[in-house]
Amino acid sequence: MQETRREQMIGLLTEGSWTLDSLAKYFDVTSKIIEDDLSHIEKSIKKTHSLKQIPPYCEGCGFVFKNRSRLQRPSRCPECKRERVTEGTIELVLKS
Fold first, then answer.
1. How far is residue 83's CA from residue 85's CA, in Å, rounded to a whole number?
2. DSSP class of residue 94?
3. What is the pLDDT of residues 9-36, one digit of tens each?
4. What is the pLDDT of residue 22?
5. What is the rounded distance in angstroms from the CA atom of residue 94 to the CA atom of residue 46?
6. For helices 31-44 and 5-15, what crossing angle results, to 10°?
7. What gap in Å lies between CA 14 and CA 16, rounded to an integer?
8. How far is CA 57 from CA 3, 14, 53, 71, in A?
9. Claim: this prediction has a pTM higher than 0.85
10. Most buried of 20, 28, 29, 94 (most Cβ within 10 A)?
C-alpha cells in the first residue's frame, strides 16, 4: 500500500529540515496545499511530535522574523526594506 502525501511529509520532516517551497516542488503541488497539509499534520501528531519552524531572516541586516505564524517567505524586511529574505525551514521533532 502506498503512503499518502501527508505520511510521506511526516517521514521527510522527521529526517530533516525542509522549506515550504522545497516541499511543494518535491510533491509537485502549490505552497498553499503544503501549508494545509502541515496544519493537518501538526494536529494529528501533536502527542508525539512538534512542528519546529526556524524563522526566516534578512540577509541584508540580519532581522529575524521570530513571531511569524505564516510559513511562506516574507516579501521584504520591515527594517531595511530589502528583499533578500531567506525562507524559513520546518521539521518535526520528537517530544521528550
1. 6
2. E
3. 999 999 999 999 999 999 999 999 999 9
4. 95
5. 10
6. 80
7. 6
8. 34, 23, 12, 13
9. no
10. 20
Dig out the grid coordinates for 58 from the structure: 534578512
State the cell numbers at 8.
510521506
Q: What is the DSSP letter of 64?
A: B
Output the nine-digit C-alpha cell for 40: 493537518
> What per-residue confidence (pLDDT) applies to 67?
83
Residues whose CB falls within 8 Å of the CB of residue 12, separated by 6 or more in sequence, listed in order = 18, 23, 26
Q: Report the greatest alpha carbon distance in the chain.
A: 51
* Residue 2 host element (H or E): none
49-95 pLDDT, tens digit each: 888 999 999 999 999 998 887 888 888 999 999 999 999 999 999 88
Residue that has been written with the C-alpha cell 496545499 in this structure: 33
Q: What is the CA radius of gyration of the chain?
A: 14
